[in-house]
Task: structure prediction
Amino acid sequence: MSRRWFGLAVAGICLGLLALAAVLAPDRLSEGDPARAWVGVLDLPPFGADDRGRPLTEIALQGARVVAAPAVVAGLLVTLLGVAGGLVRCVGSERVEAVVNVLRDIVGALPRMVVILVVALVMPLDWRGLGVLAVVWALLAAPGAMDEAAAVAGRLGGARFVEALRAHGFSRTRIYLWHIVGLNLRPVVVRQGAETLMQVVFLEIALSYLALDAMQPSFTHSDSTKSWADLLYLGYSSLVLDVPSIHALILGLGLVGVTALLSMALGHAARAR
Amino acid sequence: MKRWWAQPLVRVLVALALPAAVPALITALIWLLPGDPASIICPPEICGGTDGLAARWNLDRGPVHFYRSWVSGALAGDMGNSWRVLQGVPVRQLLDAAVPNTVLLILLATTPLLLASVAAGVGWLPRRLDPAFQAMGLVPAVVLALVAAAAVLLRYGADAHGDQAAFIRLLLGALVLGVADGALSGAVVGVRGVFDRERTQPYVLVGLLRGEGELGNMLPNVAGSLAGQLRARLLHLLSGAVVVEAVLRIDGLGDLLWRATILQDFGLVLAAATGFAVVSSVLLLLQALVEVVVAWHVRRAPLLPAEVAS
Result:
């Protein structure tokens, strides 16, 4: 199996697991059984139970539902904007490029987390969810992707590359979609999209963890829903207190690892020729 | 190179506008969203007496009045009092206590990044280490910060909030910031990439044939890119500082912004976000300055010695 197909297979499995978990997630956690609090993976397979005896599987599934759609949308948005950035360079319009550069400087001027927190603050209560924050994060990440895609297009020769292929008789559609996007921009924009997907998942974990720590409602999901941050929060107790919750920590870290693996595999699949 | 001044000029203009634009944008957002601003900031189901609060917070006479009164106060050094985080305490006092810690944290986190960047640029850092840096960079800041927080708590126990533990938390925070979320790997791979691309340029090879140094020839041409990368890294660190400071309980600007956001302390968020905007402006101005200096240096016609010219 080539590296490309191996990467695609791994990415497909990870993405499939994420989507399946999101679909299978229960709307509400089960009541639980206090007698089974903190039971391990052998007593309540596959992942054990939390402090109220509820299966950790349910928390993992709900967490997947919180992040799956917003993260994928954010990744796709960055990919599309990256493609746009590359194509703008190939069109060869200095004016358009200048406007894009100014917008890039403005959008990229502030630390992303500051913007995210400001948006979270002004977001009305009924709009709360990861979706809006993920789109904002994608818009903030887009200038970097556009810049890198434009650099790749620039190295190709920009507008001269298009002219040269036109001279060979290729149609504009084929040149832009296949030669530029499909063959040259693909590694960059797919990697950027995959990284944004991963960053949105990590953003959700960070925001939810900090909200849990401050005993406040999360910006990213309703109070009745748990996220992967809950697993880390439960598991952290095993590090500093004598709480037998190490299985929650391992599950939480495992899910972080799967997300990172998904991002890496997508990047590798897009890069390998 | 015809309009070499255009990009630095844009950066200077953005830098000048940013500290005023950020509070303006936040104010505009509050008024553009459906509903009464005071109710958005402090929903009636959470706080009572919204009308009274609106009058106290200058929210009752429109966005322009609110913005003007806040900016004029801020220019005079008065950013009002905290609404929720530490009710009644002047925001300026909170910022004065927080900013030095954040600056120290960022400086400590930047040092290894700069050293690694220099080592990567001049080729001292072996390429085979890149996958290790990249693997480290995949770990999210929140996870590494949790490990660091647990280590401090286990080591210091009841003294975990003492001065010595606070210093250790700062050091560990800087380490987390410098390594997590791809900060170190981004710096190493980014700088190496810039130098690798430049090395293939004909002028570098010609310079080598003349017996000149490779780095001396390349540096003026890559300085602009490196300045841009450094600014991006610093912004990345500032962004990560919010999470790291909040998890490790470092009393910095990021932690203040987080607490203000989660407790809906609008006045403090406005001030902290503007503080971040000022830092971003300074970084933009520095990048513009580097670009101008480099452009002048590069555009100066090199005077060739007579024996070389002949």
Summary: Chain A touches chain B at residues 98, 101-102, 105-106, 108-114, 117-122, 124-125, 144, 198-199, 202, 205-206, 209-211, 213-214, 216, 229, 232, 236, 239-240, 253, 256, 260, 263-264 (CB under 8 Å).
